[in-house]
Design a protein that fits this description.
The chain is mainly alpha-helical and about 60 residues long. The chain has one domain. It is about 70% helix and about 0% strand. The protein has 1 helix and no strands. The chain is rod-shaped. It starts with a helix and ends in a 17-residue tail after the last helix.
Length: about 60
C-alpha cells in the first residue's frame, strides 16, 4: 500500500471513530434531556392548583 492510500485509510478510520464517538455523545445527551424533562414534568405536577382568588388584582410587595 502506498503512502497516499495509507493516508486515506487512516483518515477514513479516524473519521469513523469520531462519528461513533459523536453518536454516543448524542445518545447520552438525549437520555439526559429526557431525564431532565421528566423531572420538570414531575415538578410541574407537584405544584398546587391556582386558587383563582385575587386574579387580576394588584398587591403591594415590600422588598
Amino acid at each position: 500500500m502506498d503512502s497516499l492510500t495509507a493516508s486515506i485509510v487512516d483518515t477514513a478510520s479516524a473519521l469513523s471513530a469520531q462519528k461513533l464517538h459523536n453518536e454516543m455523545n448524542v445518545k447520552l445527551l438525549d437520555k439526559a434531556l429526557d431525564a431532565s424533562a421528566q423531572q420538570a414534568l414531575s415538578l410541574l405536577a407537584a405544584l398546587p392548583a391556582p386558587s383563582g382568588g385575587g386574579a387580576g388584582q394588584l398587591i403591594d410587595v415590600v422588598a
